[in-house]
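Q: Got a minute? One more chain.
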Amino acid sequence: MDAWGTLDITSAITRDDLSSSFRRSKKITIEKLPDKVLLHIFSYLSHKEICRMAKVCKKWRMIAYDTRLWKNVSLRPEISGLHVGSLESLLALISIRFGPSLRYIELPIELITHTVLHELANKCPNLTHMLLDFSTAMQLHDFSELQAFPTKLRYLCICLSEVIFMEGFMRKIYNFINGLEILHLIGTYEKVEEEEEEIYEVINVHKLKSATPNLRVINLYGINFVDDSHIDAFSSNCIQLECLAVNYCAKVTGSTLKTLFQRSRRLKCLLMNGTNLQSDYLMQVEWEKCSLQELDITATDLSTEALQDMLTRLPGLRFLSAGQINGFNDSVLKAWMEAGNPRNLVALDLDSSDNLSEDAIYKFLSKYGPQLWGLSLSGMTHITDSLWQTVLPILTNAKILIMGTQERLGVNILVDQLMDTIARNCVNVERLELRWDPDNLRFSDKSQKAIDTLRVKCLKLRCLSLSDGRYYEIVKANFERADRMTVVRTLTNCRVSNYYLLSNYKDLVFN
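A: Always. Here it is, folded:
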């Protein structure tokens, strides 16, 4: 291994760290690397890989068990985490390997016991982020003896079960979580079967809100019992609230939104994708008086009138996701433009807005395109590469672009020219998604040149998602030859979203 080659990989290591070894030999084998260099290399490995490295030799075992490598730990093997065979093994890990270095931990139901939580509270004083996964639970452990719980938690994510009531556990931890700033309650939306079953309110939100007055970010995701009364409960006690997400909570209608904005003056982000919003309730909100900057109303059934009323009264909107809404048509876009309210807009998602014409979209982008960082015009058969070729020279600041539909089209997409236009005009693009069916993509034997141009000019590109097919294989091979192994991905495994541009994006991420 070349000494300075290793130095390039571990850029945080200075030449002085290797100078003494370099003087002894022109070539440095990995056995002779200083411990701090090896520790830095190990920091790029997953915990599963680190455990394998520990079996190589005593020196590597010692480095692998350094607590600095165990700051963020997942013990959910089904989601790329470590498998711990017994509670005794976990208790030993907490004491010996995690200790004060531990900042983040994910626990599955079988490891959530009062002894484990006691040990975390006593041995990991700097633990600030915790995920508790009850989603597969059929019954809870006995928490009657739970007397301690981590007290410095800033972030708590609880994955709920459909049938297990959480109050026996929750009432034991209420006194320990009043410092929480970020709360995730994850429901079973993705597991819902076609047959309707009885819905249980498995966690008492009204009691929970009283124990968490300092929440800034609340994410209630896909919870089948959450309705407007729960939003009202949080707003009555959480005066610091900045971001509220209730995506896929189908019982939310918006009836308490007016009260929410009157109480939560700091609320800047509201995400309501897949809810059952009612137009009348939204028209009662005093939009012109609120501080809202980021809004997601995707896949709601709002009327054209309600959309016009809201967008013409929202003065500071910077992020709008309003796809899959039949009421979003040319008149809405025109009224919004005439009011001048998109002046701060940086992200726009109009996925599957079939009632928007190509001409209306072009007029809007001609005026506001230069300021956009993220744009999604996917899912529309009438929006092809011809419109994109026209507007891409305007989108000079774009970081995220999502285009195309997976429906088969009657026209072909000239993807070589499209890639070349993106490379020449959108050098800051970081995430790009082309959803067109592979059979609609037309490319020539000179495709490599267009792909090379994109790869060389768009150096910030970290994700390029394509439909699986011949063109995907060509692009993937091109990037891999340039040692950019993780950029090109298939739509089956990766979807791009404007959510990366949300102010609270990092706080909203859950695993």
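A: The chain has a mean pLDDT of 90.
Q: Perfect, thanks.
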